[in-house]
Amino acid sequence: xxxxxxxxxxxxxxxxxxxxxxxxxxxxxxxxxxxxxxxxxxxxxxxxxxxxxxxxxxxxxxxxxxxxxxxxxxxxxxxxxxxxxxxxxxxxxxxxxxxxxxxxxxxxxxxxxxxxxxxxxxxxxxxxxxxxxxxxxxxxxxxxxxxxxxxxxxxxxxxxxxxxxxxxxxxxxxxxxxxxxxxxxxxxxxxxxxxxxxxxxxxxxxxxxxxxxxxxxxxxxxxxxxxxxxxxxxxxxxxxxxxxxxxxxxxxxxxxxxxxxxxxxxxxxxxxxxxxxxxxxxxxxxxxxxxxxxxxxxxxxxxxxxxxxxxxxxxxxxxxxxxxxxxxxxxxxxxxxxxxxxxxxxxxxxxxxxxxxxxxxxxxxxxxxxxxxxxxxxxxxxxxxxxxxxxxxxxxxxxxxxxxxxxxxxxxxxxxxxxxxxxxxxxxxxxxxxxxxxxxxxxxxxxxxxxxxx
Length: 454
Description:
Elements: H1 2-8, E1 13-17, E2 20-24, H2 30-40, H3 51-62, E3 73-78, E4 86-99, E5 102-114, H4 123-137, E6 142-145, E7 158-163, E8 166-170, E9 185-189, H5 195-203, E10 212-215, H6 218-224, E11 239-245, E12 250-256, E13 264-267, E14 269-272, H7 278-295, E15 308-311, H8 318-323, E16 329-331, E17 334-339, H9 343-349, H10 351-358, E18 368-373, E19 378-384, E20 387-393, E21 405-406, H11 412-416, H12 422-428, E22 433-434, H13 437-443
Parallel strand pairs: 5-6, 13-15, 18-21
Antiparallel strand pairs: 1-2, 2-3, 3-4, 4-5, 4-10, 6-17, 7-17, 8-15, 8-16, 9-11, 11-12, 12-14, 18-19, 19-20, 21-22
């Protein structure tokens, strides 16, 4: 444990040989990190410097965004070159998620880069040691990353949570506003004065619809409403709009981009008060969003014409139900990479949710064990009268094997987080199985999640 805390400490440094040094960043490293990230985040050598990525680094390193500060980049610098350039980096962002009603801290490694001239030396693996150590030292139970295909599987991650699923409406199919009719709802920019109402509306959301959701804390809401329109990176962080009724009362809020990079206007989050006619609200909102989209500046001169509105609200959401057949666009999205370094600890933390699932089920009051073999390890859960009393690492034996189920390493995360059903896992992995299907599917039902990134 002492080693973990040492790596997490701001002053920790590691000599990697050949003049390369791994350490934690300071504010003075901001521009070096931004320059290398902007060069690396390009599709082709002929592409221009990625100013959007560089600006994002500058904002995150400034401490303006509550999820991280100037000391949260793990970097490698080359001391054999003038100026000690940064050649690789990973930042650690901090968020909180809910597992149903249970809040937990998670870490989000992001903006991962390495200079092409320094690849295949294990630099990123070393930096993940730093980031994972700091995440663990801060008591974060899970790490998640939105990253390129396959790459992060090398570092203990598995695709296990829905990311950016959406449904959308073609503008040609959107109902037209009737001339002379007053809209039931309109949009206006949110201000600091709206913060109490935003918090109230957010706290009224129904978390029972999802397994995992993102917690938006007070500090991040304040950041969402800050006036920093003159900053070059401002368009990358979107804007917040209030949904107001004809009497001017706030009935909800949503997050929108400031610039458009494609043919769609993307609604990144949306929260409304309960007991409203959502279908009637959406008729007015579609009109307001269409007007907003038509006035948006585009990121490039050759950006496609505005033709659709997409709601990035997860796989299932009441908005989709209210839109009905209008929601003709379906995008399954991508997935979060998930890492749970201490699985027993995570399961102990969410035990109340598992115990609640047993209530009023065919296995209510279950007493017994559930031993799952992960082939390189496993886990044992012991229940007494519906209460989870023991969760511990466990390993099966070849002789007298007493496993109650088995999954390839990390695949169990998909069931734990409701991402895939037992039937789906068995179809995809011939070595996924359980003896007591009723117990397993009661404890780990497939359910949508809506974990947005901040």
